Structure formats: C-alpha cells, structure tokens
Amino acid sequence: MGRLVVVSNRLADPRKPAAGGLAVALGESLQKSGGLWFGWSGNISEDGASGNDSNLHMRNSGKVTLATVDLNRSAYESYYEGYSNSVLWPVFHYRLDLANFNTSHLAGYRRVNQLFARKLKPLLRDDDTIWVHDYHLIPLAAELRALGCRQRIGFFLHIPLPPALILAAIPQHEWLMRSLFAYDLVGLQSEADVAHCMHYMTTEAQATLQDDQRLSAFGATVQVKAFPIGIDVQEFQRLGRSQDAVDTFESVRNEYSRRQLLLGIDRLDYSKGIPQRVRAFRELLERYPDNVHSATLLMIASPSRDAVNAYVDLRQELEGLCGAINGDFGDLDWIPVRYIHRTVARKRVPGLCRASRVGLVTPLRDGMNLVAKEYVVAQDPEDPGVLVLSRFAGAAEQLRDALLVNPYDAQGMAESIQTALHMPLAERQRRHSALLENIQRYDIHWWREAFLATLQSSATKASAA
Questions:
Q1: CA torsion through residues 360, 366, 371, 377, sign
Q2: What pLDDT score was predicted for residue 72?
Q3: Would you place residue 461 in the very low, low, confident or very high pLDDT band (cuts 50, 70, 90)?
Q4: CB neighbourhood size of 388 (10 A)
Q5: What is the pTM of this model?
Q6: Are residues 123 and 218 in the same domain?
Q7: How high is the pLDDT of residue 464?
Q8: Which of 6, 40, 46, 329 has the fewest CB atoms within 10 Å, i.e. the most exposed one?
Q9: Which backbone phi and psi does 334 adopt, to 5 degrees?
Q10: Is 262 helix (H, G, I), strand (E, B) or coil?
C-alpha cells in the first residue's frame, strides 16, 4: 500500500496523548506511510469566504501531514448543524420524529463535500489509499470520482445504518445511498447494519448481490462488510494504572463503601436511552426494596448540543426524573441518584468503572458504544462488575456474555439489574473473562488492519473499468 489518506469531519494530532483511540490507531498507519489527514479545521469564518486557497491550512505532525479547511457560517449551519446533525443523525438513529428535512440543508451538505473534494484532489498521489469516515462525508468519494480520482477509496460509518424503510424517509435518499457505490469498500459497525444496507441496495437501488458481500449497480461494484470498532485495550489498561485513575477508584470506593454503585457514562443525547435507564432504576427500587439505602445510580451525562431544542427537552426530562426519585426515595444519609451534567476527565473513567458493581450501557440505538468495552477492561478480574448492555447497541453482537436488555422495558431492565447486583462471583468472573477475551481480540488495531487489508484486496475502480 502506498500512502494512507484519512478524511474526516474533524481531525486530531495523533501524537498528542489526548487525541483519542481512533486518532492513535489511524496515526500508526499514517506515520508509517507518511500519510495525510484531511478535514474541517473547526474554524468558522464570518467574512463569507469558505474554502478559499488562503483557508487551506497545512502542518506536519512527525511524518503525518494535517490539512484542514475553514467553513463560513452558512456552510457550517447547513452542512454540519443542518443536514449532518438534524437529518442524518436522527434518521440513522431511528428518530424520524426529530429530523428536520430542510431542502437547503441538503444543498449545503453537497457543497461542503464538493469543497472537500476540490481541496483534497491536488494533494493526492496516484498510489494513495483513501479512507473516509462517517456520515458527514458519505458523498465524498462520488465527488472525488467526478473530479477524475481513481485511487482506492474506502468508507467507514461510525453510527448505525437503519432499515430500508427508515432510510427511504430521507428526501433524495436515492442520491445519498447511490453515492456509496463510488467506494470500493463500505465498512459498517455490525452485521445488522450490513443486512440493512444489503436490503436497501437490492430493493431500492435494484443492485445485484454478488459473492463476498459485493453489490453491483450504476456500473460500479462495492463491497459491504462489518468491522466492529474496538478500543486500545493496552492504552486503557495503562490509563487505569495511572495515579488519577487509582485515586478516583479509592475515593469512590470509600465514598460508597456501604452502597453498590451503578454507573452510566454518556453524552447527553436522545440516542443513549438515559431517561429510560433512570425509569428502570426507579422500577428497581419499587420492585426490589432491598436496594433502598443499598444501591446508588451515578449518572454522568456530559453536555451535547445544549442549544438544540431536543437536547434542552432531554435535559429537563432527565433532571425531573432524577429529582423525583431522590425526593420519593432519598433519605438524610442516602441519595439514590447522583446526576452530573458535565464532562468527567477521561483519566478518571477507569477508576469510576472499576469502583462500580454494575455498568449500565443502555442506548436506544448505537453504532457500537465503546464505553461498554472500557467498562469491561477496567474491571478487577478477581472481583469484576457486571455489564448490563442494550441489545440495540452495536456492541451487543460481540459482547454476548453481558446481560442484554431492552431499554424500552423498564421492568425487564430492573430485573436484569437485580440479577447483576446479586450475581455470584464465579459467574461474574466467567462472564468477564469471556467479554475481555473478545475485546482484546477485536481491538482498535484489529479494526484498522482488517479494514485496510480488505480495502487493499478489493478491486479498484480503475481495474474494474
């Protein structure tokens, strides 16, 4: 393989410790190949200019070139806030009721993808391998092909792909999904997502299904395959041994020495099923009163798009639910729900996970959910906590030894939480061992290598022509 070119909405310096697991994983291949990472700078210009030559910023990070472009206010509002986060995000998470199908948003989304293609093309080499990431840039390969690019191009969707009938609710969904045929490989998080894609392509786009999950339509062939993303297990284990994590573990353990701690860590997003989780905890206290004064739910919901009405409503609902539980069940020496609406430093997360008897990861829909995997890795193998996981998280396909739940069923979730709180040590150890083995095998490095190897072996558009 020649040079790796990564394209994403935002990018991070892969050499910085705070870059995150994805940046570190991509950074290994980028550094090795002297690669290029291209995306939006995060800057919003107020002068009406967007993507002019002067707005292409380039700098080096070791052997990696980081290239970014600015967006003007109009482009940002239509491409990012509009189509990406007000159409694709809710629809792909099965929330048609929250989508804003404004036709001007689609136009802005297409213009920014065209801008990215125009700015990226002069930076490309003939033997580059291009890896495009996530829903912001679905049509990018089609725009690059229109400019004459013949390089091998792969795409990975980090969020779920919904069933065909839900996708068909998007105005001009045909154009959006047809653009996937400009890629050589489309990677999705789960086999369920692959099945949804295959069904849409064969029914809505009349694609022909070939061997090895390849689809042919519009004079092109694309391979569609599941690559469940993992975490950097060794890095997270090192983080768990840091002084901050150890101090957090000891502090939380001492604070809740007389309680069993249930932990939820999420962005405050309507896809995460946070109100449903709180209702299940209330059900737990009502149905199993032995948990009164014994179990405490620690809810960490970091801010997310606080200016959007749906998120304002969600925050108000959550605060009302937590306040009602504390008012109805709390006592002078026990607060049932500890709710924190701010971001907790990542270096403290392993300690929080290790101190918790139960990890509650219960999204209504999620592409993968890496918090579930981090919770498992953080546990003491000799006395591990129990992962309660939504069957609607992509991670549920891999983590079958978790207690899988339906987040819409408060009573069923309460019963599973009760099971987790009273699970014998031997069963906790068995489940944890099986979960950890899977997470270690299919880590972030496996994900990167598996995707790139499959992309490398796929037929190029040039050879197919």
A1: positive
A2: 93
A3: very low
A4: 27
A5: 0.94
A6: yes
A7: 45
A8: 46
A9: -155, 125
A10: strand
Q: Is 51 left (phi over 0), alpha (psi -120 to 50) or beta?
A: left
How far, in whole angstroms, is CA 216 from its chain's centroid? Answer: 28
pLDDT at 309 over 80: no
Residue 282's identity, in one-letter code, is R
Q: Please, are residues 295 and 302 in contact by the beta-carbon 8 Å criterion? A: no
179 shares a domain with 277: no
The answer to whether residue 462 scores a pLDDT higher than 50 is no
Do 424 and 279 fall into the same domain? yes
Point out the catalytic residue in the list 70, 193, 269, 366: 366
Q: Is 403 helix (H, G, I), strand (E, B) or coil?
A: strand
Catalytic residue among 158, 199, 341, 445: 158
| Rg, the chain, Cα only | 23
3-state secondary structure of 16: coil
6 DSSP β-pair partners:
37, 131
158 is catalytic: yes
Kindly report the length of the chain. Answer: 465
368 near 189, Cβ under 8 Å? Answer: yes
**Cα separation of 190 and 105, whole Å?**
29
Q: What is the residue-wise DSSP string for 160-203?
A: ----HHHHTTSTTHHHHHHGGGGSSEEEESSHHHHHHHHHHHHH
With bands split at pLDDT 50, 70 and 90, how would you rate the model's confidence at 52?
low
Q: With H, G, I as helix, E, B as strand and everything else as coil, classify residue 12.
A: coil
Whether residue 210 is found in the same domain as residue 255: no
Q: Do the domain assignments include residue 38? A: yes
pLDDT tens for each residue of 409-460: 999 999 999 999 999 999 999 999 999 999 999 999 999 999 999 999 985 4
CA 392 to CA 404: how far, in whole Å? 9
Respond yes or no: is residue 366 known to be catalytic. yes
The domain that contains 238 carries what CATH number?
Answer: 3.40.50.2000
Among candidate residues 461, 454, 452, the one with its CA nearest the CA of residue 146? 461
Q: Determine the Cα–Cα distance for residues 199 and 185; give it in Å rounded to an integer.
A: 17
Res 364: pLDDT: 97
3-state SS, residue 340: strand
Residues 6+ apart with CB under 8 A from 16: none
User: Is residue 465 a part of any domain in this protein?
Assistant: no
Residue 270 confidence (pLDDT) above 60: yes
CA–CA separation, 441 and 461 (whole Å): 32
CA nearest to 398, candidates 444, 437, 360: 437
Q: What pLDDT was estimated at residue 170?
A: 96
